[in-house]
Every structure is written in C-alpha cells, then in structure tokens.
Amino acid sequence: MLKINNLHASIEDKAILKGINLEVKAGEVHAIMGPNGSGKSTLASVIAGKEEYEVTEGNILLEGEDIDELAAEERAHKGVFLSFQYPVEIPGVSVTNFMKTAINETRKAKGLEDMPAKDMLKMIREKSELLEIDRKFLSRSLNEGFSGGEKKRNEIFQMAMLEPKLAILDETDSGLDIDALRIVANGVNKLKSKDNAVIVITHYQRLLDHIVPDFVHVLYNGKIVKSGGKELAHELEAKGYDWIKEEVDA
Amino acid sequence: MSKYTEDDLREELKTKEYEYGFFTDIESETFPIGLNEDIVRAISKKKEEPEWMTEWRLDAFKVWKEMTEPEWANVHYKKPDFQAIAYYSAPVAVDPNKTLDDVDPDLLAMYKKLGISVDEQKKMNNVAMDIVVDSVSVATTFKKTLSEKGIIFMSISEAIKEHPELVRKYIGTIVPTKDNFYAALNSAVFSDGSFCYIPKGVKCPMELSTYFRINQGGTGQFERTLLIADEGSYVSYLEGCTAPSRDENQLHAAVVELIAMDDAEIKYSTVQNWYPGNAEGKGGVYNFVTKRGLCEKNAKISWTQVETGSAVTWKYPSCILKGDNSVGEFYSIAVTNNYQQADTGTKMIHLGKNTKSTIISKGISAGKSQNSYRGLVQIGSRADNARNFSQCDSLLMGNECGAHTFPYIEAKNKSAMIEHEATTSKIGEDQIFYCNQRGIDTEKAIALIVNGFSKDVLNKLPMEFAVEAQKLLEISLEGSVG
Ligand SMILES: Nc1ncnc2c1ncn2[C@@H]1O[C@H](COP(=O)(O)OP(=O)(O)O)[C@@H](O)[C@H]1O
Ligand SMILES: [Mg+2]
C-alpha cells in the first residue's frame, strides 16, 4: 500500500524529516508516536502532498507508484486521506456541500458522473448514523464554531464518506471525551478492511485500546527510532519518551 | 502528471480571454463623435421625442457643461475624453412592434453566446425580458401577460411616446439632473433603457428582466431606467450586463430611478460583468452609475448586486426612506481582479420614523485590484427610532490587492440605533490544502471559499440569477490565488 524510503523533507530550508523508512501493507494499522515537534504532522502532510514541504531525498510509493510529482488532490483521488490535527474553517460552506464537492470532484477525476443526489443523501444518512452525528450539524459551516471534539468527529465523518485506501489520523483523539472517542474509534474500525490501511498518530494509549495497531513506531527528531508491536505503546505510556531520547542521544 | 502550481494558474488567468469578449457584426447606425447641443437634439429627434423631452435633455446638457468630474472616489483612471465618444449607436431598422421571431438572427446568436436563450428564459424562468443592445430596446417579451394586469414594461423610448404623463411626472424626481456629473450627462444623452409601472395592489407575477450590452466600439451606453411601484404593489426586477472586449475604454453611465409608493415593495437585482479589461489593465468599461430609490410609507426597496466586471466601477445604489416604517436594503458582492478598481456602496437616508436599513457588503479582491466600500447612513432629525445594521466583509487573495472601507454616519436624531461590523480575511494556504486533500483542486477550492463568503448575498438573488452569479464569481476569479 504505502512504502516510504529514506524520506528527507524540509520547510524553508529547515530539515524536519531526516530519513524515514516505513512500509504499511493493506489491512494493517500502524501507530506513530513521539514527542511534540518530532515531525509526525510533517510526515502526514508530506504524504498528503502539501506543497510547502520540499522532499530533498528519498521517495514515497503508493501501491508501487512514486507519488512525488502528484498534487495533493491527485493523491486524494488515489485514496489518500488525512484527518487533520487542526481542521480549518471554511465559512459559509456547509459540511454537506463540502462533501458533495469533494466526492464529485474525485468522481470527475476518475471519469465518473456526479453521484446522484439520492445516493448522496443515503450515504450521508448512513455515515452520520455510524458516527452518531446529528444531521442538523451537517448544515453548519465547515468547522466554524465547532468544538474541538466536533471537528475531529467531522473529520472521521469525511473519512467515512470518502472511503479512502490509506487514512492518516493525526491526533484525532485530542479534544474527544471518552464517549466521543469510543464512537470515533468504532467508526474507524467499521471502515477498516483487508484492502485499506490506517496510520494513527497519537500520544496516548487510550485511542490504541480501541483501534489496535499491528505496529507501533516512535518518531523522534525526524527519524523512526524504534518500532515494535502494540506492547511498545504500553511501554511508552508507562515510561514516557525520555528513555528513548536517552537511547538515541547516547 | 505534473503539479498544477499557483504560477500555472496565474499564467492561465493571464491568457484566459474574457468569456463574453466577442463582437457581433450587426449593421448599426452611429452618430458622429462628440457632444454639443446639436447632438442632443439629434438624439431626441431620432427617437421622435416630444418637445418637452428635448427641452429636458437640453437643460441637462447645460447643467452638465458647467460640472466637473468627481474625484473623491478611490479610483484612478485616465479621464474619458467626452468629445471622443459617439453618443448614439443603434442596430438599424428596429421596429418596436416586432416579436422575438423577427429579431435579427445574428443578434439572437449573440444572446446565445451570452448564455441567454430568450426562448428558454421565456418558457422556463417565467421572465419577461427587455433587451437593450447598445442603445435601443430590441425585443420585449411577455408584454401581453403583463398588460392584462395593467403592468407597463417597455423601453423608456416607447414609454415617452405611449405614457408621456407618467414619464414626465417622475423622470428626474429621484435622481435630479444636477445630482452629479454622470447623471447630468445621462439625462442629456440617454439612448434607451427600461420603463416599468406596477399599478396599485398588483403583485407582478414574474421577474422582469433587462439585459444590457455594449456592442459598438467607441460608443457610450447611457441607459435610463424608471420603475414605479404604485401603492401596495410588488415587483422583482433583474438587470444583467455584458460588453465585448475592446482595447479602448468604453463608457457606461446609467441612471436608475425607483419609486415605491405606500406599502409597495421593489426588489432590484443586478449582475454586472461588463468587460473588465485585460490582465495588463488595458481596455474595459468605465461604469459610472447612479441608482436611487424612494420609499414612501411602509414601502421597501432591496438592492442586490453582483459586480464582477468593469475596469472602473463607481456606483452607490441608495434608498431615501422618506415614509414612516419604510425599509431599505443593500446586498452587494463586488469582485475585482487584475487591475480592476471598484468604489461601490450605498446611501441610506432615513427621513421617516421607524425606518430600517440593512447593508451587507462583500468585497473580494485579487490580482492588483482595489476594492472599496463607501457607505453613508444618514439619520434625519425627525427620523425617530431609525435603525441601521451594516456589515462589510473583505476577502483578499494575494498581497498585491487592496480592500478599503469608508463607512460614514451622520445621525441627527438621538434615538437612532446604528451598528457597523467589518471583517477582513485572506484565503489561506491551509484552507486550500484542506480542500486539495479532499480531492478538490485549487481553482474549485477558491470558488467554494468565495461562494461561502458571498452566501449571505447570493441567497438574496432570485434562484435563476443566483446560479448565473455563482458561475460569474468562478470565472472572474479563476487562477487568482496568491
Ligand atoms: N510551516 C512550518 N514552518 C517552520 N517550521 C515548521 C513548520 N511546520 C512544522 N515546523 C517544525 O517542524 C517540526 C516538526 O513539527 P510537527 O511535524 O508539527 O511535529 P509533531 O506533529 O510531531 O508535533 C517542529 O520543530 C516545527 O516547529
Ligand atoms: Mg502534530
């Protein structure tokens, strides 16, 4: 599904990613953990194709294809989805209108007609039920005045609507209370299949109790410095990151 | 596939030609250039006007000669040479009685290019259209349905002949000849325009629509619109404008007068996309327009405008709230790109008691353009409990454009309640990336964000106009991200 080879990326000549190697196969869940500022969101943005970041070395393969030259929307059309750590507001554009546009633009890129309104409505109904979202919520302007938790739940609603192959969830758990966390995790689990993959970026074990990872990676100072199974997350929860920093810096 | 960068977008915008920039080769009759009493007389004679109209024009001309062009607006342009313009241009052989079927096929083809199939408009949208090409009103549809209700909807030239008592009574009462330089010029040389009268208690059953277009090079278009809604009546009026692209600047100086008598309501909507000039700022229409309405008791006037065109726009649709409990509204979207300059806004003059006005202005600037909102809220000493709410929002794209707001308030009555809110925002890279990540390309993302920003005003437009307006917003901002 995703293969990252020796990826180096920088912004404004400041190196942030310093040689990342990562392979994610279909059907897998990977967790990426690590202290603040270690480059987790940067990695997510680079995979999604944010232009401000410059890839200086290495490459990213999506289903075997080098996606370096692809614009962000083209990567999205190929099934890459990013649940943002800080979703932006778009005043005056309703969640529904935004989703309709996103789905139809993706269909257009694949040479398909617009989704019939009837199918769109059905899908909206199903997915909003899955995430226990009040449909009135979908008429509101995208992320405008949403609470932190509402923003995150809305991100996962969009993921459900777009049915991506590769979903990257960047600190989706922050801002969610326990009930919302359960709903969101439950939603992600329902969307999981043997054909898609999920990368979960988080600081906390509690999300990983619900979305159980096959692999856990620790990102520190732009590099993956440790990888392991789901027990690694428990260890980090208990001991923090200092012992890893010491190992690396030693 | 390569990335589609902002630079590519910018390049595409530069090479993108004005959608409506074609020139139709219809035979037309153009007066010699320049302006003097003889030309004014000739226009009046050509139009077979009665003596009083000729005299009215000549008076206006005398007033105009003594006036100078206003300079207070936040626009900079080379002043037109008023002696280098032809003041009359009409497609030849126009018979006011002919129906749409008799209209010059070239002309109909032109409407098609403009995206207005008159037939379709007629059938599907229930719209009566009065189309003004250059200066003469060519075809008026739906006349019969309207006349059954006693509604008069015709070109102003016809109205001068057929309803001289109405025209003579009201013309120039709302926008007096000496109101301003361009109004005086218009009064002297106006070539055509629309006239509309809704009788007492009649709700006009369809949207009335006029399509203006400047076709001939080196001509000015000076329409004159007079709309009278008698007591308790209602009318919704749509006005759309386009002009072909030309290197020289074309002058457009219109006057619109609205009269809403007791308990009457007028909704006046405009979609203006006169040629804005090319990417280097060459050519384009100078749009100097005076629009004003008078509200009697319990009357209401709403101005809604979507302004995407013209090189220079100077336009302040206003309401005189003379009657008690009368209501004035102004909803505006003004888009400027490249080297366009817009100075637009409104005046709400509160004279009666319990009068209310609402102003919502959305300015969108891109390229190297300048976009100014200029508004005056005036509360007279007898206007007890007058209320105004104004909201002016600006959206900027890139670092080279400007947005300005000039709100003026003059309150002579202590009971007045005036609220003003203003915001300025920029389309952020993060917003664009968010959309891109969901599969929406940059161009579509901008359209989406701009439509969201403009929603409050777009919602005020009649349905079929709103769709067209949305498309126009997209066209005029294509590739303008910075
Ligand atoms: N747009 C930017 N400009 C400059 N520095 C940035 C930018 N984005 C991220 N950084 C820097 O890159 C580093 C990694 O940030 P980030 O990827 O957000 O970390 P994480 O998500 O792991 O907390 C930080 O030092 C941050 O300050
Ligand atoms: Mg982060």
UniProtKB/TrEMBL annotation, chain A:
Sequence ranges assigned to domain ABC transporter in this UniProt record: 2-246
- Extract the PROSITE patterns matched here: ABC_TRANSPORTER_2
What positions belong to coiled-coil segments?
none
Q: InterPro entries per the record?
A: AAA+_ATPase, ABC_transporter-like_ATP-bd, FeS-cluster_ATPase_SufC, P-loop_NTPase
Name of the protein: Fe-S cluster assembly ATP-binding protein
Residues in the signal sequence: none
Which NCBIfam families has this protein been placed in? sufC
Organism ancestry: Bacteria, Pseudomonadati, Bacteroidota, Flavobacteriia, Flavobacteriales
Q: Which family, according to the similarity comment?
A: Belongs to the ABC transporter superfamily. Ycf16 family.
In its UniProt entry, the species of origin is given as: Winogradskyella eximia
For molecular function, the Gene Ontology terms on record are: ATP binding; ATP hydrolysis activity
Automatic annotation (TrEMBL), chain B:
Q: Which residues form the signal peptide?
A: none
Tell me the SUPFAM superfamilies matching this sequence. Answer: Stabilizer of iron transporter SufD (SSF101960)
* Domain named SUF system FeS cluster assembly SufBD core: residues: 212-453
What is a biological process (GO) this protein takes part in? iron-sulfur cluster assembly
Among Pfam families, the record links this protein to: SUFBD_core, SufBD_N
The residue ranges of the SUF system FeS cluster assembly SufBD N-terminal domain are 47-204
Q: Which family does it belong to?
A: Belongs to the iron-sulfur cluster assembly SufBD family.
Query: What is the name listed in the Swiss-Prot or TrEMBL entry for this protein?
Result: Iron-regulated ABC transporter membrane component SufB
